[in-house]
Every structure is written in structure tokens, then in C-alpha cells.
Amino acid sequence: MEQAVMIKSGTEMLAGSLHLPENRTENGKIPIIIICHGFIGSRVGVNRLFVKAARYFSSLGFAVLRFDYEGCGESSGIYGTYGIERFIGQTEDVIHFAANIPTIDENDIYLLGHSLGGAVATLTAVRNEKIRKLAIWAAVGRPFEDIAAIVGEEKVAALEYDSFIDFEGYTLVKTFFQSLSEYAPLQEAKKFTGDVFIAHGTEDKEIACSYAHIYEKSFRKSAKSVEKNLIAGGNHTFTSIEHSTELFRITGGWFVEQRKTAARPARKII
């Protein structure tokens, strides 16, 4: 079952889509996966990446909540006029919303982020104790440098005298880029103590695949477990059916295994 939801975040309303698995026990609580989209993206994703992912994960018995950040998709607000701290705040508001859905197990929330959403998911997971399971796809490692390269470094430099950048119809202001420079997800990843899944396409031309290795090294400083997978030939949005199918399969397999591990009783030491 899929249903539209609206989530309050400050003065804005974030549009979301909630997927509930078909096979549920009447009184049993279910785990939920929250999907964080990337730069100027939406909860649909390129070639419906997040729609397809949500339906696949739902078929495995998970609830899935995908949402639009402020000013994206069907959410209110103006994207690019605020800082990355608002992305984190909006993600935390969505986590709070999900935790209060009656059928959801508030102690079994998974966070999945793609591209800039991967960086935001990492930053949020470090700050929010409800998140013990984190998955990142093709995650941005150095927010300012990576997004500036996509937009155009000369355009970003011109913000010293221009009031904004019109990038594909989005208004990007100086404050937005300043905030990107203030966060270092690759460093903050060292603080996360939960379980981590990393995936990246080897032919990603937007965000370097090498970040997957750096993230893995950083997470291993404190994380309970880290699994890394490289999708051979995959691009930034895993466009082909072959690559997206493999991505869903290995990510879904990790989610299922994490759920089994959590449900498994601890061994007694005699």
C-alpha cells in the first residue's frame, strides 16, 4: 500500500510517500527505511530510482518513506536559499514523523541517502540516536567542492557580486554554498557507531567512486559493522536496469540481514 503524506518541518510542509508492506501481522510493528534524495532532486529520483527502490524494499517486508526536501518536488519552500543544517533538521523531522506512525517500530529505523542525501544522511545519523542503521549510495564526500564542480566553480565564485545562481531553475545563494563548506561528512563518519552499508558505481562521473573507500575507512573507526559494494559500470544514478537491479538486491539483502541480526537473541556467555 502506498499513500501520500505531508510532514511539518518548521514553517514548511514536506511532501512524502509512505509505502507499507502487504504482508503484515495485525499487531506487529514493522521497520521503516527513510530515503534522502540528493542535490535538486526529489522523492521520485532519476528514472524513478527511489520509487522502484521503495517498492522493492516494501516487498521485503519494510515500510519505506521517501520525501522531498524543502523547495524540491511537491514540498513548500525555496531550495538553495538555506544551509545544510536545514537538510539535517528536515531529515530529523521526518525521522520523528516516521517514529510516531502507529505501525512502525520506532527502534528499527533505517536511513538511506543518495548523493548529497548520502552526506546529509551521514551527518544526521551521527546526531540522531534513533539511527543505528545507515546506507549510502554514491555519497557526496566534500559537499562544497562536489556541488561547486557540478554547478560550475566560476559561477560559485561570482556569488561575491551576484545575488544568486539560477541552476536548472533553482535559486542557489551564497549562504547555501557557505553552509556546504562548513560540514565534513567524511570526518564526521568516524563518530557513527551503528551499522553501515556503502554502494557506489565505478563509472560515476559526478561523484568520485573513490569516496566509497574513504567513507569505509572513516566509518570503520567507530562503526559496529561496515559493508562496501562497488557496482561495476554503474553511473551516479544507477540508470541501467542491470545496475539498479543489482543495487536493490544487495542493499535489500543488507537490510534483511540487519533485521535478522537485530531479532536474533544475544548469546549467553557461561
What does this structure look like?
The structure is a single chain. The chain has helices spanning 49-59, 84-99, 116-127, 143-151, 153-157, 174-181, 185-188, 210-219, 241-263; strands at 2-9, 12-19, 30-36, 63-67, 104-114, 131-137, 165-167, 170-172, 195-201, 225-231. It has 270 residues and is α/β, with parallel strands linked by helices. The chain has a single domain (2-21, 29-140, 184-263), classed as 3-Layer(aba) Sandwich (Rossmann fold), CATH 3.40.50.1820. The strands form two sheets. Strands 1-2-4-3-5-6-9-10 form an eight-stranded mixed β-sheet, sandwiched between helices. α2 (84-99) packs across α3 (116-127) and α4 runs antiparallel to α6 (174-181). It is globular and about 60 Å long. Mean pLDDT is 94; it is low at 266-270.
Radius of gyration: 18 Å
Mean pLDDT: 94
- In CATH terms, the superfamily is Alpha/Beta hydrolase fold, catalytic domain
- In which order are the strands of the major sheet placed? 1-2-4-3-5-6-9-10
Note poorly predicted spans: 266-270
- Number of E strands: 10
Q: Quickly name the level 1 CATH class.
A: Alpha Beta
Strand content: 15-25%
Query: What is the first-to-last residue Cα distance?
Result: 46 Å
Please state the structural category: alpha/beta
CATH architecture designation: 3-Layer(aba) Sandwich
In N-to-C order, the SSE pattern is EEEHEHEHEHHEEHHEHEH
> How much helix, percentage-wise, in residues?
25-40%
Describe the main β-sheet briefly: 8 strands, mixed
Overall number of domains: 1
**What is the overall silhouette?**
globular
Output the number of helix runs. 9
